[in-house]
């Protein structure tokens, strides 16, 4: 099974939207090359078009590649997709992201 994952750099930094067979291992692999602490916000089952749709939806928030600014629109969509976002530390930018709760769900059929 392949998943779409959401990883955030630091407590209020950019969010990576990518895909992996093992989101937890991918998170660890990314951390090796990143100077800030990375947080796995959650993941959902991958669909062939959903990841591309998300990238297109947030094109105006794209920083580079698969990294996006953590705007309210981006955070709201991630919360909609994964439910309660979980991470090791509460971000300063959005109090709706909590430190406990489920962090994976089935991908919805539509964005």
Instruction: Work out the helicity level.
Output: 25-40%
* SS content category: alpha+beta
What is the alpha-carbon Rg in Å? 13 Å
Overall pLDDT score = 82
How many angstroms does the end-to-end distance come to?
20 Å
Q: Given the C-alpha coordinates, what overall shape results? A: globular
Count of helix runs: 3
Outline the low-pLDDT stretches.
88-95, 97-102, 107-111
**Strand order within the widest beta sheet:** 4-5-2-1-3-6
Structural write-up:
The protein has one domain (3-105). Mean pLDDT is 82; it is low at 88-95, 97-102 and 107-111. Helices cover 26% and strands 25% of the residues. It has three helices and six strands, in the order ββαβαββαβ. The chain has 111 residues and is α+β, with helices and mostly antiparallel strands.
Pick out its properties:
111 residues, six-stranded mixed β-sheet, 3 helices, 6 strands
Short précis:
The protein has one domain (3-105). Helices cover 26% and strands 25% of the residues. It has helices at residues 23-32, 50-57, 72-82; strands at 3-9, 15-20, 38-45, 62-64, 67-68, 104-105.
